[in-house]
Amino acid sequence: MIDNIKAQLTDAMISKDKNRIIALRNFLGKLKAKEIEKKESLSKSESLKVLQSMAKQLKDSIDQYSNGGREDLANKERDELEILSEFLPEPLSKGDMSKIIDEVIKDCGASSMKDMGQVIGIAISKMKGRGDGSIVSQLVREKLS
Fold first, then answer.
1. With helix as H, strand as E and coil as C, how does 83-141 read?
2. Mapping DSSP to helix (H, G, I), strand (E, B) and coil, where does residue 69 land?
3. What is the C-alpha to C-alpha distance for residues 34 and 27, in angstroms, rounded to an integer?
4. What pLDDT, on a 0 to 100 scale, did the predictor assign at position 114?
5. How far apart are CA 57 and CA 24, in angstroms?
6. pLDDT tens digits for range 92-129
7. Is the distance from CB of 59 to CB of 40 less than 8 angstroms?
8. Cα separations (Å) of 115 from 56, 94, 107, 108, 119?
9. Which residues of 68-93 are buried (b: 16+ CB within 10 A; e: fewer)?
10. pTM of the predicted structure, to 2 decimals
11. Among 1, 89, 95, 133, which one is most buried in terms of CB atoms within 10 A?
């Protein structure tokens, strides 16, 4: 993952794409910081978790900037999120998430809201980072209530 981002950074430097250079350097910085914290190289899934966390932070920032009337900053964050999405797996559709949740509910015999945490945990792990946690939570709540 890091090598891929470094290659993209080189290409951005050659083409003098300033916004892309800044975004890619931010991604590399976060990944390197996590490696330093862990004291070893990150696996692909660990790198993916770091990037997904960044995507969530960017989405939150976009909402806050938009609500605060700072569309200039919101657009900057949108551009960075768009670049980041190139490195993230294709997200699952709501229908696909619903099917996975149905399987999990059937497999673990969940029947009430007290099983919600267990169902969400298993479903998210089966989605391998491709499902939005808030949507998963909403779907599980609908199915178990």
1. HHHCCCCCCCCHHHHHHHHHHHHHHHCCCCHHHHHHHHHHHHHHHCCCCCHHHHHHHHH
2. coil
3. 11
4. 83
5. 16
6. 888 888 888 888 888 888 777 888 888 888 888 888 77
7. no
8. 26, 21, 12, 9, 6
9. eeeeeebebbbebbebbeebeeebbe
10. 0.71
11. 1
